[in-house]
Amino acid sequence: MPNAPAPITLTGSAIVTAAEKLLGDPYTYGATGPSSFDCSGLVQYVFKGLGISVPRTSEEQYTAGKAVAESQLQAGDLVFSAGSDGTASHPGHVGIYVGEHNGAPSVLEAPHTGADVRYTPLSSFDAVGYRRMDGVTSSGSGSATDAGFNIPGLGDVGGLLSFPSDITGFFSDATDDLASAAKFFGAFTRVSTWVRIGSGALGAVALVAGLVMLILAAGERS
Questions:
Q1: What is the pLDDT of residues 51-107, one digit of tens each?
Q2: Looking at the structure, do residues 98 and 165 belong to the same domain, yes or no?
């Protein structure tokens, strides 16, 4: 008897990469691609292209996968809002969380008639819920969530000190190109990075250290 095929698993970065290829495509109500989309059609098209089936409408997508809190968001998660024709319990709009874009946590969405697929700051999305689809791994590049800092022999000590997974992912992805390295080290010059590191129990120490570094850096520039 042949072995069953292994289930497909995706990283958040793979989902975001596929979605970003559709930036600039027009919104069309009821469209599911390949060159125009409505909000849930965009989500379905991206996941289907990567081998994962998700429901067609935003209301159905809101019951798929598993719910996550905003603090647990990672790249590739779905973000829902009531939209113009839905409610908080039956959202009428959905987008794909991409992590930070231009320094702010953002969603990629097919917004409305007359607008193209675009990035929208998470703070402007009026989110009412978040879901992670089945088959998506719990880590991915671009996440705004924290990943435990694993020490060999001690296991995961994320409860003591945690780092954003877009930073820890730099090591796990074995990235070695200069552009990625510059982006990685540049992350430590942003206040948002230190705020996110500051979510651990020892985060206050890391946050203070980060603020001191920023103050010293500002003094050197003046």
A1: 999 999 999 999 999 999 999 999 999 999 999 888 999 999 999 999 999 999 999
A2: no
pLDDT in tens, 164-185: 544 555 554 444 556 556 666 6
Rg (CA), the chain: 19
- The helix or strand, by DSSP H or E, that contains position 166, with its residue range, turns out to be helix 165-172
Q: Residue 108 is part of a domain; what is its CATH number?
A: 3.90.1720.10
Q: 97: which residues sit within 8 A by CB, 6+ positions away?
A: 73, 74, 75, 76, 77, 78, 79, 105, 106, 107, 122, 130
CA distances from 205 to 50, 99, 150, 191, 211 (A): 41, 25, 19, 14, 10
Task: Name the domain count of the chain.
Answer: 2
Same domain as 167, residue 123: no
In a domain, 7, yes or no: no
Digit-coded pLDDT (tens) for 125-153: 999 999 999 999 875 433 343 333 433 33
Length of the chain in terms of residues written: 222
Domain assignment present for residue 100? The answer is yes
